[in-house]
Amino acid sequence: MVTVDQVLSTLGTVIDPDLKKDIVSMGMIKDVEINGNDLKFTLELTTPACPFNDQIEQDVRAAIAKIKDISKFDLKVTAKVMEGRSLSMDEMLPTVKNIIGVASGKGGVGKTTVSVNLALALAQTGAKVGLLDADIYGPSVPLMLGMGKSAMEVDNNKLQPAESHGLKVVSFGFFADQAHQAAIYRGPIISGILKQFLVDTNWSDLDYLIVDLPPGTGDIPLTLAQTIPITGIVVVTTPQEVASNIAVKAFGMFQKLNIPIMGVIENMSYFVCPNCTSKHYIFGKEGAKKMSETHNLPFLGEIPLNPGIMEGSDSGKPVLVTDPNSVLSQAFMVVAKNVAARCSMLASQLSEEMKAEVATQK
Ligand SMILES: Nc1ncnc2c1ncn2[C@@H]1O[C@H](COP(=O)(O)OP(=O)(O)OP(=O)(O)O)[C@@H](O)[C@H]1O
Ligand SMILES: [Mg+2]
């Protein structure tokens, strides 16, 4: 006769490779049903985009196979993204589980290209994803998603995001008349617009909200960091930028504000020659990886320099949409999975901290 205890202690040996904790104490095993020697339960993963999901499922099956008496085993695998934001400070955007800012030191390193394709890659894993174009001075998300004719509606005093390829999208670019005048707006007005986009928008339930920031450490990144609790920031850099250390300055500001730096993405890392198909590291190899190691930050992946990525961005047809199985899309998919894994880790740390806080209050 199989017992619940036996099942849970066996499953307690399965460790989530990312979170380094066993899946039972993480609450990933749900709805255990034992009927004679038949076993049924749900494995609830922390995100559909985790790079280790297949491995965890295999480990679960291998662990259960060790229990002799089981005659039938029925496993359901689901995913529920963890809450990666501390909402104790306020209750803003309670339906958005993770907010991820995409920042850089310098302009033109590919933040918007990465934000758009990262959002699409996360959505392809089954997550609910929003994309906020916080570059009020130079909104380019609508162009990159080919959303020329889209608009945002106002309903019940809340902005309704436009939609594209399953993403909820908010951008100052939808206000075509104002967008070209944004350059003359001053800090407080710009901050006000961003605050409205964040909190006066009906984002509904989202697993991830990606916020595409303008370059550097000006008013807009500061407003994002100070308006609402966010999960963290990813920094996009290029091999050339690594050499000049500008990316390091960008994450310095967020660290001072106590915003977690989730990791570094290197864009335009290498060029794949169409004739010889080998990777050419034109500007040096693994610069961003070494930089992240020096600063004790996770490296989230490298994206090649490729005319297809540029054409996709500039024509409003991102590569994740036109060719989701291509090598280029796979590079974005790796980044998306690493970002999702970092969110789960930060969420797990946060829940530990909150538990510890509750314990000290008792
Ligand atoms: N991996 C890549 N391969 C080829 N071209 C790219 C790549 N990434 C971005 N680009 C191109 O580089 C240009 C700048 O990219 P993008 O607008 O995404 O940068 P950004 O950091 O958001 O710029 P800004 O600081 O102005 O907001 C665009 O024309 C884009 O198509
Ligand atoms: Mg941009």
Automatic annotation (TrEMBL):
Function according to Swiss-Prot or TrEMBL: Binds and transfers iron-sulfur (Fe-S) clusters to target apoproteins. Can hydrolyze ATP.
One GO MF term attached to the UniProt entry: ATP binding
Any Pfam family matching the protein: ParA
Domain MIP18 family-like: 5-69
Entry-linked InterPro entries: FSCA_dom_sf, MIP18-like, Mrp-like_CS, Mrp/NBP35_ATP-bd, NUBPL-like, P-loop_NTPase, YlxH/NBP35
UniProt-annotated binding residues for ATP: G105, K106, G107, G108, V109, G110, K111, T112
Cytoplasm recorded as keyword: no
CDD domains associated with the record: Mrp_NBP35
Keywords associated with the record: ATP-binding, Hydrolase, Iron, Iron-sulfur, Metal-binding, Nucleotide-binding
Subunit structure: Homodimer.
PROSITE patterns (alphabetical): MRP (PS01215)
GO biological process: iron-sulfur cluster assembly
Natural source organism: Nitrosotalea sinensis
Protein's recorded name: Iron-sulfur cluster carrier protein
UniProt xrefs under PANTHER family: IRON-SULFUR PROTEIN NUBPL
UniProt similarity note: Belongs to the Mrp/NBP35 ATP-binding proteins family.
